[in-house]
Write a structure and sequence with these properties.
eight-stranded mixed β-barrel; elongated; binds ligand C2E; binds calcium ion
Length: about 800
């Protein structure tokens, strides 16, 4: 009995041990299966992602080619040269090839059967290729290439992008040929033969499939996966013959290998465990085959669990716990894989979007704007009475905000403006940021509703003029708007945008915060402006067309010649002598006033020296200094090696310059004028608001009272008092005072009595040419008989 009783715990122990063994074995088996299943699930999910990404990237590529075809078709032309130029312009505008690097070439093929009686004997000459690295192909007839013809036929018959069979590119890597038809303007015919005759030509493109895949999959984790992509042709069969001639890309080959592809390279095709996914594109089925890289799968999980089970209950429990964890991990993994697939898909659509989106504001960009306008045109079935409007918006004072608030502030303002623009126009409007601080909104409007559009633009300008707070500081900026519209029946998208730009240019010229509607007059003005600009540049090169005229300045006390002011004149070969108002503003825009100022000052000095040589010494020579030149960094060097002369040279600087915020460089340059032994005068004093501020800051040797202030002094007592007080200020600050625009003896008398020391104006002499000045100096009669 005793022995029997002693066996009990052993038996119990054995039973427990056997039980534990069974449990552990079962648990580890489950674990092993689950591991394999979850790996399989994960692998399948990655295959799906891969296929989704490839097909999305293909869509983007096809969309690019389609956009090219619509752009070309919109010209309404059927002439190969015109279409080709249009295509090139379209590609360059959007910089499309650099955003789709796998597209090697885009070309234009014409259709020999276009407009012909019968669709027989088609010829498809290649008339353009971009970039033109393969220009020797121009003129080649593609109807001799079956791979290409397959794509062309498919494209013409379906109206969709057609894809050809695999070709080998010159570099030895695989590629495919795309074709997208361009139909004649008007309805697209449904009947195939008519369609053949109505197809003007095709946009064709060659895609390097190998680099396409590399780009398409660059964001995907491909560790542990090998893949191959094959072209199955137009009809996929279940047991296709896959070989070198169908291979579009392989993860196992680098670019070099495609050239000497050995038969065993297509390992994946024969691997029984390969997963497959098909993508259909342009009438072709592309099959993606995927296998785990050898040795990548885990096979040890089960054994490990088994050993753990044998060690004992505690460890078995642990293993049970681990298996529980694995199990929940498998569930988790599945949901993670789903999540990741979703993430990837979002990422892909983002990639596609990015090419068309401004990431800062979420608006479109320049590329998508053109495409949007094209689809607006194509999307309208009833065109009568409708127009497309382009509203071009440019911010005023944005640069200052960027400079003072930093880029974060600038970005904040741009997003704020993007919101305003979205709110200002109807929902269907396409809004894009087309440059740093430039935006364009494009929309279809009823012709009679232009006034509504202007009202919307006015609200936009108003909203932009409201200060916003950034970082606790108020930012003030504004917006100017140019609007152009074109009837839907005859839109030229590029011209439409240019017109809106011209209108904007004009709005800016008229001052800030304006809205300008494009008109043919504006166009004429802008064209004239452009021609004038070219002419100015030519004249600067010619070197002798900008000359100084000299207006004498008379000393009130002695009645003698005090000095002369050099004023620029353009001796135009066709138009005669032109005043500064005809060229200085445009030269400012061109940033070449400095060059003109320099030409004028140098030749003025030579004139002074010639006069001195003749015995007529002029004591003071003053010249006008443009704002842009005063702001120049290398201004000092430009005044340092002027020709020598004995007269005192001074620069007249507009008082209005000192109204602007950015004075740093201007003040340094003013100092360097004095350092170089020359003087500074303040011109048009009293025309701005900063008078006294300017005087104390600049400490000029002389100020010139604006002629607008001088004109009314004989008639109006209070105007006289105003000038009187200016003269007083000059006296207090010990600054000489010149009065400009003196036209009558009465004015001259009053100014002298007030204490002005120098007078200048038509009363004494108009600006004189060199010859006239010489005659004037020889005559030696400076003050008028009525004066002095
Ligand atoms: P500003 O410096 O105020 O020049 C005086 C202008 O008044 C000159 O016009 C002159 O012809 C005109 N004027 C002179 N006396 C009388 C008068 O009694 N009555 C009236 N009504 N006008 C008189 P101009 O030569 O057409 O020059 C216009 C402006 O162009 C100048 O105004 C100056 O700001 C600018 N400018 C002229 N030459 C140059 C130059 O070489 N460089 C730069 N940057 N600007 C120049
Ligand atoms: Ca002046
Ligand atoms: Ca002046």
């Amino acid at each position: 009995m005793k022995n029997h009783a002693a066996l009990k715990p052993i038996l119990a122990g054995l039973a427990v041990f056997a039980l534990v063994l069974c449990i552990a074995g079962a648990v580890s088996g489950v674990t092993h299966r689950q591991t394999i299943e979850s790996e399989r699930a994960q692998f399948a999910a990655r295959a799906d992602s891969l296929a989704a990404q490839i097909s999305r990237e293909l869509e983007v590529t096809v969309a690019t080619i389609q956009a090219g075809a619509s752009a070309v078709r919109l010209s309404g032309d059927t002439n190969g040269d015109v279409l080709r130029d249009r295509l090139y312009a379209f590609l360059e505008d959007g910089d499309l090839l650099s955003s789709s690097p796998a597209i090697r070439n885009v070309g234009l093929v014409m259709n020999g059967a276009f407009g012909a009686e019968s669709p027989d004997a088609p010829r498809f000459p290649l008339v353009g290729i971009y970039p033109d690295t393969n220009s020797r192909l121009i003129g080649a007839d593609l109807s001799f290439s079956p791979e290409r013809m397959a794509a062309i036929d498919y494209a013409i018959e379906t109206g969709q992008a057609g894809v050809g069979r695999r070709i080998t590119l010159l570099s030895g890597i695989p590629g495919v040929f795309f074709a997208q038809p361009i139909y004649a303007p008007g309805e697209v015919p449904t009947e195939i033969d008519t369609r053949r005759r109505q197809t003007v030509g095709l946009i064709v493109a060659v895609l390097a499939t190998d680099s396409f895949m590399i780009n398409a999959l660059s964001d995907i984790d491909l560790r542990g996966i090998d893949f191959e992509v094959h072209d199955l042709g137009s009809e996929a069969s279940d047991a296709p013959v896959l070989g070198t001639e169908t291979l579009l890309a392989s993860s196992r080959l680098d670019k070099m290998d495609y050239k000497e592809l050995s038969p065993d390279a297509r390992l994946i095709a024969v691997a029984p465990s390969a997963l497959q996914r098909d993508v259909t594109i342009g009438g072709h089925v592309w099959r993606i085959l995927l296998v785990p890289k050898t040795g990548a799968a885990s096979q040890h999980g089960g054994y490990v669990a088994l050993i753990i089970g044998c060690v004992g209950f505690f460890l078995a429990a642990l293993s049970g716990f681990a298996s529980y964890q694995k199990f929940s991990q498998a569930v988790l993994l599945k949901s993670r894989v789903d999540e990741r697939t979703h993430d990837l898909q979002t990422a892909y659509s983002q990639i596609a979007k990015q090419a068309n989106e401004d990431s800062l504001t979420g608006l479109g960009n320049r590329r998508s704007l053109t495409i949007a306008i094209q689809s607006m045109i194509e999307g309208q079935s009833h065109r009568a009475g409708k127009s497309i409007a382009a509203v071009h918006i440019d911010l005023d004072r944005f640069k200052q905000i960027n400079d003072t608030m930093g880029h974060a502030g600038g970005d904040f303002i741009l997003r704020h403006v993007a919101d305003i623009i979205r709110r200002s126009f109807p929902n269907e409007t396409f809004c894009a940021r087309v440059g740093g601080d430039e935006f364009t909104a494009a929309l279809v409007i009823e012709d009679r509703n232009v006034a509504d559009l202007e009202a919307a633009a006015a609200r936009l300008v108003d909203a932009c003029s409201q200060p916003v707070t950034f970082d606790g500081r108020p930012c003030r900026f504004g917006a100017s708007v140019g609007i152009a519209t074109q009837s839907l029946a005859s839109v030229e998208p590029k011209e439409l945008l240019v017109n809106a730009d011209l209108a904007l240019y004009r709005a800016k010229e008229d001052g800030r915060g304006r809205i300008q509607l494009f008109s043919p007059e504006i166009q004429a003005e802008v064209v004239a402006h452009k021609e004038r600009a070219d002419d100015i540049l030519r004249a600067i090169d010619a070197g002798d067309e900008f000359v100084p005229f000299f207006q004498p300045q008379i000393c009130c006390i002695t009645g003698n010649l005090y000095g002369v002011e050099a004023l620029a004149r353009w001796v135009h070969p066709k138009l005669g002598i032109l005043p500064p108002s005809e060229f200085i503003p445009i030269a400012e825009d061109l940033d070449v006033v400095a060059k003109i100022d320099r030409l004028v000052l140098e030749s003025a000095i030579y004139v002074m020296n010639r006069a001195e040589g003749e015995g007529h010494f002029v004591a003071h020579l003053s010249t006008n200094l443009s704002f842009s030149r005063l702001m120049e960094g290398d201004f000092t060097s430009s005044i340092s090696n002027l020709p020598k002369c004995n007269c005192a040279i001074s620069f007249e600087i507009l008082e209005s310059i000192f109204l602007d915020d950015e004075q740093g460089p201007a003040m340094w340059n003013i100092d360097s004028i004095r350092d170089a032994g020359m003087e500074v005068q303040i011109d048009d004093f009293g025309s701005g608001r900063a008078s006294v501020v300017a005087l104390t800051r600049v400490a000029p040797s002389r100020m010139k009272i604006d002629r607008e202030l001088v004109a009314p002094i004989a008639e109006y007592e209070e105007r006289r008092r105003l000038v009187q007080s200016i003269v007083e200020i000059g006296k207090v600050l010990e600054i000489g005072v010149t009065a400009e625009g003196v036209e009558t003896p009465a004015q001259a008398q009053l100014l002298r009595d007030m204490g002005c020391d120098v007078l200048q104006g038509y009363l004494f002499a108009p600006p004189l040419s060199e010859a006239e000045l010489m005659a004037y100096l020889r005559r030696g009669q400076f003050a008028t008989p009525a004066f002095g």
